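Appendix C reproduces, verbatim, an entry submitted by the partner laboratory led by Prof. M.T., so that reviewers can inspect both the input and the predicted structure.
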Amino acid sequence: MTTLADLAELVRAPAALSVPGDVIAGAAAAGALSPRTPGLAGASVLLYWAGMAANDWADRRLDAEERPERPIPSGRVTPAAAVGLAAGLTAAGVGLAAAVGGRRAAALAVPLAATIWGYDLLAKNTAAGPAVMAACRGLDVLLGASNGRMTRALPAAATVAAHTWTVTALSRREVTGADATLPMRTLAGTALVAASAVAAPRRVAVLPAVLAGWYAARYGAAQAEVVRDPSAGRVRAAVGAGITGLPALQGALTARGGAGLLGVAVAAAAPLGRRLARKVSPT
C-alpha cells in the first residue's frame, strides 16, 4: 500500500522549499508583493510537485536499472498513481494560480505547466534539457510578478534561470559522474549568478550581497569538490547543494527588490531544506 512517505519521496517534498522564493523574488522585483503572493507561491509548489511526479513516471524504466530504490521501480507507487498525481497537481496548481491571480497569473501558469511537462516527457534527455528547465524557473519568477510590472522582474527571472541551468547540467551526471570541465563551467556560472543577484543601478546593497555570498559559498564549495573528485556521489551532493541553496539566492533577489526582512525569511529556508534533505533526497 502506498503511504504518504512514499508520495513525499516521489515528489521530493523537501525540495519544494526552494520554490516559493521564486514567486516572492518576482513579486518583490515587480512591486507586486500583496496578499495574493502566498497563493501564487502555493500554486508554484503544486506545479513543482507535479513535475517531480511526472519526472519519475517518465523515467520509470530507466530508474528500474539505475535507481531501483525509487518509489515506482520499487513497487511502492504504481505508474498509474504517479501520472494521475502529476495530472491532478498540475490542474490544482493552474487552478489556484487563476483563482488567486486572475487572468494574468493564469497566462503564466499555463505555459509554466506546459514547459514542466515538456521537460519531463521530451526535453530532459536532450541537449535542450538544461535550457528548458531554466525556462521553468524563469517563468515561475514571472508568475510572482504577474500582477505587477513584469519587465522589472526579468533580471531576477534570468538570474534564477541561470542558476537552474547549472544545477540541471550537473544533474545529468548524477549516475555516471562527470569530467572536471563540467563543474568548472557551472562554478563559473555560479559566480556570475551571485554577482547578478547583487548588481543594482549605481549601488551595491549590503544585505543582498551577504545573502548572495552565502549562496555562492555553499553551492560553490560543493562544485569545487566535484572539480577535485568528479564521481557520481560528489555530483549528487553538488546538485543537492544547488537545490537546497537556492533560497539564499532568492532571498538576495527579494532583498534587492526592497523587501529586506522578507528576503532573510526566504533565505532561512536554505538550512531547513538541507536538514530535511537528509531524510528525503531532493534529487
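The two ends are 24 Å apart (CA to CA). Additional entries are available on request from the coordinating office.
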